[in-house]
């Protein structure tokens, strides 16, 4: 058995249905048997995971986090601040775990712990938002994006995916549009938009049909979805149909494309969500793909 490998284990005890509490000793046993000296940190507040990675992560051989997509975001944000790459393990414990599904990381905690301890490193792209923050799998604005960070944690725990749908239906009657100028590569769009997301994932909010089917998590490109404001019930129906079509251009009101850089400008401040958490209010946003800059362990090579 190898000795003297050092691990930082970050746990959000409130994620999901708090199942980590009954599995923790078994998880620690897996890591110790794999030869790790484990430093455990229980998160206490927002940004705690990022801060402990920045403080203690550089001296570790492996960083593992257990929690939902927000905990994963904070941990990777901390890794991005380290002077050199440290591999990441992930034990999903949230209510949706979109990115874990995309990575084929096991849903069972003990299997995920084994993947973290013994799995193969898999490089993934990371998003940089306005040169100041990072996101792992989605940055979005407009209709429904506020649902993820306004839905109370206890409701997420109890209802899972249904929580997002319940809160989303409440906001249907008050969908707001934004005048925007959107530019990427040699292209530009202008007009009123009700929704937009930049993703690097197969599913968003537990739904797999919203992004293209040929998603690669490390190709240097994001999948972009933009929706213009509908003027009539027929146009709204057209949007719904266009969302779930597999072709790139779903309808005249739905835009789907790939890019490694995007700029979105609006005269009116817009709220953004990053990986399901509040990402700030902005009028001028840049989104940049950072190619294969984090390695995450999984069973499949």
Question: How would you describe this structure to a colleague?
Answer:
The protein has helices spanning 20-33, 48-56, 69-79, 98-103, 109-118, 145-150, 153-159, 161-171, 233-243, and strands at 5-11, 36-42, 62-67, 87-92, 120-129, 133-135, 138-142, 178-184, 187-199, 222-228, 254-259, 261-274, 277-298. The chain is α+β, with helices and mostly antiparallel strands and 301 residues long. The chain folds into two domains: 5-125 and 294-298, Probable inorganic polyphosphate/atp-NAD kinase, domain 1 (Rossmann fold, 3-Layer(aba) Sandwich), CATH 3.40.50; 134-291, Tumour Suppressor Smad4 (Sandwich). Strands 5, 6, 7, 8, 9, 10, 11, 12 and 13 form a nine-stranded antiparallel β-sheet that branches. β5 (120-129) and β6 (133-135) form a beta hairpin. α7 (153-159) crosses α8 (161-171). It is elongated. It starts with a strand and ends with a strand. The relative contact order is 0.16. The mean pLDDT is 85.
Number of helices: 9
CATH class category label of the largest domain: Mainly Beta
Q: Which range does the strand content fall in?
A: 35-45%
DSSP strand count: 13
Q: What is the CA-atom radius of gyration, in angstroms?
A: 19 Å
Derived structural class? alpha+beta
Net shape: elongated
What composes the largest sheet?
Answer: 9 strands, antiparallel
Order of helices and strands: EHEHEHEHHEEEHHHEEEHEEE
CATH topology of the largest domain: Tumour Suppressor Smad4
- Which percent bin holds the helix content? 25-40%
Distance between the termini: 23 Å
Oligomer: single chain
Low-confidence stretches: none
Question: What's the CATH architecture of the largest domain?
Answer: Sandwich
As for the number of domains, it is 2
Mean pLDDT score:
85
